[in-house]
Write a structure and sequence with these properties.
This is Adenosyl-hopene transferase HpnH. The chain is of the alpha/beta class and about 400 residues long. It has 16 helices and nine strands. It has one domain: pyruvate-formate lyase- activating enzyme (Alpha-Beta Horseshoe), CATH 3.80.30.10.
Length: about 400
């Protein structure tokens, strides 16, 4: 099992409790963004456009822990930005552990090896390392050479010290199935507990728009990646979600399943979209027009989304129903089977032209090519990083 039994039990007990109570909209994973500042500028990122005075803001440990209590989700994913930059990250982690929550601390791992001394191995803490494929693919994705080697070294060091380590991988239309499978092999050899993999969301403010997948291409890509999956591969996903990625199961989004709290407050409606902010979790649940979002909704920004933070919660909720439980058993038994394709799928996939633009990778943080060039691309698309929409929205709320 890719997660501790205690974690699986905690989540199962929590979900069953919500169902017995008749709670329709409950959070599964709280997305905590204690800061937006990062030491990388990735081409698919929707955060780097914030002006400097916003990048300097932090969610205090006190507010972060209060938000987790208010939300009540059994799992907290600490994202950003780069959480290890936060001066109170140790206090946040220790506080969440005391609350009984399971933590995935998302990091690009550039600072991880030196930061490990701040933490103690604990079954409730996992370092979720951002790895977008093998060295060539990863370094291009994050726009800096050498990051893969640093991250891999940190992964091995953390595993050696007894920490739980997982990886999170975002795939774009540049992904080559054979290379992704080779990457899975390397992560297993490094000793990671489980891998999380998801198609990239087409952030409106991301500097490189050509790299994103549309929905049908996503399904074909994951068929090619997961077909004849090796028994050694361990994933940090429910079988139903992985079947969803392959197109074997269809779900609508559960945007309230992964609610987001950051420097502006509770983000409406989800981790991927910023349509306003409110001060309390209850207000988020009660005042958001949930019917607007997802595949059945009217918002065009949702139409190509198949990201885990929208659909993993759907898959988990389904697994605790009678028919969903049967789908779970079937997905577990058939996941490693060979994939079959229609002629239309193969033609669409083969004709997809991957993004081939220059990545302008920097060899170290002092060279200006990465963030400066990406910000120039944002500005050229008319998204000038001045006072942000988010600031205007939080002011009104």
């Amino acid at each position: 099992m890719p997660v501790p039994v205690s974690q699986a039990y905690t989540v199962a007990k929590y979900v069953m409790t919500q169902k017995v109570k008749g709670v329709k909209r409950y959070p599964l994973v709280m997305m905590l963004e204690p800061l937006f500042r990062c030491n990388l500028a990735c081409e698919g990122c929707g955060k780097i456009q914030f002006p400097d005075h916003i990048l300097k803001k932090r969610v205090s440990a006190e507010k972060a822990l209060a938000a987790a209590e208010e939300c009540g989700a059994p799992i907290v994913s600490i994202a950003g930005g780069e959480p290890l930059i936060h001066p109170e990250i140790q206090d946040i982690v220790e506080g969440l552990i005391k609350q009984g929550r399971y933590i995935y601390l998302c990091t690009n791992a550039l600072l991880l090896e030196r930061a490990l001394k701040k933490f103690t191995p604990n079954k409730q803490l996992s370092f979720s390392v951002h790895m977008d494929g093998l060295q060539e693919e990863h370094d291009k994705s994050v726009c800096r050479d050498g990051t893969y080697e640093i991250a891999l070294s940190a992964v091995k060091k953390a595993v050696q010290m007894g920490f739980r380590v997982t990886t999170n991988t975002t795939l774009f239309n540049t992904a080559q199935p054979a290379r992704v499978r080779e990457f899975f092999d390397e992560m297993m050899e490094a000793g990671v507990e489980g891998m999380m993999v998801s198609p990239g969301y087409a952030y409106e403010k991301a500097p490189e728009q050509e790299i994103f997948l549309e929905r049908n291409l996503t399904k074909t890509l994951f068929k090619k990646i997961f077909g004849d999956a090796k028994k050694e591969w361990r994933f940090n996903h429910s079988p139903n979600f992985m079947s969803f990625l392959r197109g074997d199961i269809d779900y609508d989004c559960t945007p309230w399943g992964n609610p987001t709290y950051n420097v502006f407050g509770w983000q409406k409606p989800c981790y991927l979209l910023s349509d306003g902010y409110v001060r309390t979790f209850k207000e988020l649940i009660d005042t958001t027009d949930w019917a607007r979002y997802g595949q059945k909704g009217t918002d065009d920004r949702c139409k190509n989304c198949m990201v885990h933070c929208g659909y993993e919660a759907s898959a988990v909720d389904d697994a605790f129903s009678v028919t969903g439980g049967l789908r779970l058993l079937k997905a577990g038994m058939t996941f490693r089977r060979s994939a079959t394709y229609t002629a239309e799928e193969l033609e669409r996939f083969d004709n997809q032209k991957p993004y081939e633009g220059a990545h302008a990778c920097a060899t170290n943080s002092t060279e200006p090519s990465a963030k400066d060039e990406l910000l120039e691309k944002i500005q050229s698309r008319g998204t000038t990083p001045v006072k942000s929409d988010e600031e205007e929205l939080i002011t009104r709320n």
